[in-house]
Design goal:
Length: 335
């Protein structure tokens, strides 16, 4: 596909340490991709950071807003009480065709709520019952997990739509024809799992997707599927458990390497290998997670994101636009 320049909105008030990582990440993205980057937020906080960067030849715009959504804000309240927030304004730019995608490291619940409502954000794609956040697991097989925490309570038809959206996302973003879709359960056998799992399994089996059946977490990790479907409660616990185990293993290996001179020498020799694994497992390489099911491209990153993660989130957003993921979901639901 020919390279094309885009207009990407970044919520400059999103990250925990805003606006510095958000602004610096925007500058790095503009420099690498050549796109127009639009920063939404308080110009009095954004401009001093922006003035410290080398923006020569870069198209970076600031859209001033009088309000910002905090991580502690209740989504149900701020969706209506903060109509001039950096989130609302950014989403409206996409809705009105003034930007191609929206990226934020901010309050996930508020972004989801605002994006779902057509009156204040993008609205749902026609036919979508529940938009969902999916995430590419940063491991060798790079499976796509959906839902990653958006919908804690689900109905079987929600999981069916998660499978459809996840399959289309992987097909477009990873170039995998007819991706393998599995349903996370406590056993591979067809009758295993809760009533939700059993009913969703029946729907997925009759969906026309390349459904391989129930999978346990070990199959997910070792590459048995390209898309793993679950409710948001399960997905969020799975993701957080994986992050905690990875952190524990990293710290334990470091402790053992430093335990004596022999292991220290071995650790030095293995340092390049450890560096490769560390990069592969680093969630900042992915940058953010797509919100699928809304009528526009939205990427949501972690509040602790660095400038590098913000840049990588922009990479994800522009690839979703290039590969027409939203359009594919619209078409896929009508088949």
């Amino acid at each position: 596909m020919d390279w094309c320049f885009m207009r990407i909105v970044i919520d400059a008030m999103g990250s925990d340490n805003h606006p510095e990582p958000d602004v610096v990440g925007a500058v790095e993205a503009a420099r690498e991709f050549g796109d127009t980057l639009i920063l939404t937020g308080d110009k009095n906080q954004i401009n001093p950071i922006l003035s410290q960067q080398d923006t020569t030849g870069l198209d970076i715009q600031v859209k001033h807003t009088f309000q910002a959504i905090c991580m502690t804000d209740k989504p149900s309240e701020v969706i209506k009480s903060k109509p001039d927030s950096s989130v609302h304004v950014g989403l409206k730019l996409v809705k009105n065709g003034e930007a191609d995608a929206f990226v934020s490291m901010g309050n996930t619940g508020a972004i989801l709520g605002a994006a779902m409502l057509r009156a204040v954000g993008l609205g749902r794609i026609k036919g979508i019952k529940r938009p969902s956040i999916g995430v590419i697991f940063p491991i060798k097989s790079r499976p796509f997990l959906i839902d990653n925490g958006t919908n804690a309570e689900c109905k079987p038809e929600y999981l069916l739509q998660f499978g459809i959206m996840g399959s289309l996302y992987v097909e477009r973003m990873r170039g995998i024809t007819n991706p393998r879709v599995g349903l996370i359960s406590n056993g591979e056998e067809e009758g295993k799992g809760t009533e939700l799992i059993r009913e969703a399994g029946s729907l997925l089996a009759a969906s026309g997707l390349n459904y391989v059946g129930n999978i346990e977490p070990k199959e997910f990790v070792f590459g048995s599927v390209d898309v793993a479907v679950c409710d948001g409660f399960t997905g969020n616990i799975l993701m957080k458990t994986a992050e905690a185990i990875a952190k524990y293993m990293s710290e334990e290996i470091r402790t053992q390497i430093q335990a004596g001179p022999v292991t220290a020498v071995g650790g030095l020799l293995a340092k390049p290998a450890f560096a490769k694994v560390r990069k592969q497992l680093n969630p900042e390489e992915v940058g953010g997670a797509p919100l699928l099911g809304v009528d526009g491209v939205v990427i949501i990153g972690h509040g602790r994101s660095s400038a590098y993660a913000v840049k990588q989130a922009v990479r994800q957003a522009r690839r979703m636009v290039e590969n027409k993921v939203v359009e594919a979901i619209m078409t896929g639901l009508t088949k």
